[in-house]
Amino acid sequence: MRHRAGRHAATVSGRRVAGWAALAAGAGALAAGTALAAGPGPTDAGALPAPATTSPPAAREAQRSAGPLAVPAAPPTRVGIGAQRVDALVEPAGVLPGGELAVPDDPDRLGWWIGSALPGAARGTVLVAGHVDSARSGPGALFRLADLPLGSTIEVRAGDRTVRYRTVARRSYAKTRLPADLFRADGEPRLALVTCGGAFRDGAYERNVVVYAEPVSAAR
């Protein structure tokens, strides 16, 4: 993603629904400013969670009422990846006036896109992004995301609950080719962690790394 003033550039409209497609088209800016992770993109692996499906209103309401996680939804505050000894703070990430997704400049902190689902919700993608590294701080919390084995546990703290996810797929996308359904709020519940990867040329990484995970359980 193209680097702009330490932010994740993403052109979106100010409206949640209208912003999905625009964000998917322009969210190629998760670069942070060094070449620490330069190299070929990671190999795709695993099967993606089921995409959004269209169902009658009554069926959708039933799904919301009897979702896989019977927990109150709240914004995420921490992400833990035990296999990589990651314990990162998460901040809400809105959209700047120029249309950029304003994740934290500090690569050790992650940003939860406020237009995405809440952890524990019965539907939608919880989208969390972070810089892979920075010239000032070095490797970030998601520096080794591309190497995370499938089947690993990711714990997301949200309110007074911890929602646990299991990684099921990894994909590497060209910086302007993030799939539109990554930004939908009406698909099956899942977590998507996003950072940069691939070669570092002309001040930007060429690819985005996305790790997908499905909910396993929720605990106090």
UniProtKB/TrEMBL annotation:
- Superkingdom of this entry's organism? Bacteria
Signal peptide residues are 1-37
Q: Mark out the compositionally biased spans (Low complexity).
A: 42-60
Where are the residues of the annotated region Disordered?
42-73
UniProt keyword terms in alphabetical order = Hydrolase, Signal
Which InterPro entries does the record associate with it?
A: Sortase, Sortase_dom-sf, Sortase_F
Q: Which Gene3D superfamilies match?
A: Sortase
GO function terms (MF aspect) = hydrolase activity
This protein is called Sortase family protein
Source organism per entry reads Spirilliplanes yamanashiensis
Its taxonomic path starts at: Bacteria, Bacillati, Actinomycetota, Actinomycetes, Micromonosporales
